[in-house]
Amino acid sequence: MGFWGIEVKPNNPYPYHADNVQGKLHITQATLGLGSSTEKSILQCSIGHKKPVFLCSLLPDKIESCPLNLEFDVDDLVSFSVLGSRSIHISGFFVADDEDDLRD
Amino acid sequence: MGFWGIEVKPNNPYPYHADNVQGKLHITQATLGLGSSTEKSILQCSIGHKKPVFLCSLLPDKIESCPLNLEFDVDDLVSFSVLGSRSIHISGFFVADDEDDLRD
Amino acid sequence: MGFWGIEVKPNNPYPYHADNVQGKLHITQATLGLGSSTEKSILQCSIGHKKPVFLCSLLPDKIESCPLNLEFDVDDLVSFSVLGSRSIHISGFFVADDEDDLRD
Amino acid sequence: MGFWGIEVKPNNPYPYHADNVQGKLHITQATLGLGSSTEKSILQCSIGHKKPVFLCSLLPDKIESCPLNLEFDVDDLVSFSVLGSRSIHISGFFVADDEDDLRD
Amino acid sequence: MGFWGIEVKPNNPYPYHADNVQGKLHITQATLGLGSSTEKSILQCSIGHKKPVFLCSLLPDKIESCPLNLEFDVDDLVSFSVLGSRSIHISGFFVADDEDDLRD
Question: How far is C48 from chain B (nearest CA, A)?
């Protein structure tokens, strides 16, 4: 297990790779990055070439954090991207498969 | 397991189908879609012909995302719909039954 | 398992009954009902004749939804009620006992 | 299992006792009590004589509810208290140990 | 198991140590500390010398609490820090490994 976090920048989709470690990624939080724009930033997720789905919408100086609850397997091919001019930090934790076996 | 997400549009209820895969759908987030209307959009869920129940109410430029925590089986017959003029994106993840067996 | 939702109306407490099905009810969300009053509505829960405890407070046009995380057994005798003039929709899902056995 | 809820009043810390029942208390929600003060109320938790830690800060007419996720055992010696002039209701559910065994 | 909480102060990163107890720390809440500054405070987490990732952004008098959902093992080497002039209290609970075995 371990902390996991990335910064998703505008115009720079982040494809999720599990780095050859079998396990499950839990994404649990999104927080607006630094910047002066007061326009909202939307975090979205897409699978393959499907139309992206919005995960959360962050409003500068109003609501800058949002809890999430997503789980991904190593085999999932997803990509995170941002609509808007400020980045979004997403974080959570990774549980490797053998830990999971031990746990259950 | 895999990411799951749809956009529920006004006047266009979305019936949940599990596509013949036995498993459980976890719906964990709702986010307001794009648009210029400043009126709120309400996500609701109904079973059969019962009166729909509100799941969340999203307020443009105030609160545009809401965490949810719902679980559905393949046998559940539910329908999601939106009250208001802007769509609502709902997302989460699907756990197939054999994964669930492995997990527990 | 199945979706569960009700509308709790002012001046009309809702006693929880499990309808003779052994299992566990998870209540995960509360959302303000329709109406023009701008005063807050408070959802409360009471056991027997004890003083009710507030579960959430919803503010029209500010915060109209609130995540909850409550679990009830068939043997629990609780009653939900609303303080204020607008109803509150509460929702979640029911897991029957044998499903639970299968799951674990 | 059963619903659990208390009202923590200003100047009146609430020590948690498990009433000799072995089990685990899940505290999942905090909601501001009634009152006319517009100053914030902060819920805090302390262990023994350690400095209290803030659990949530509730702002009248802005944010009056907050989800929590805390688990306590019968052996934990904690005390809840409120900074501010309005009380805070905290709620959740209790799972007795033998239920827990049955469940898992 | 037991309650866990700390206050992370500006300019004073807090490295997480598990105090030689094997187990898992669940961090579930962040709340803004006292102070008169109206500028936001951001909680961030870093692993080793990697760039920190934002966990939540708290806005005085608007949003002063934020639910989190993070799990850490004894072997994780993480450090929490604050951007801004007011401290952030983080809290949750610790589950020792043998409890976890008993539970599952």
Answer: 26
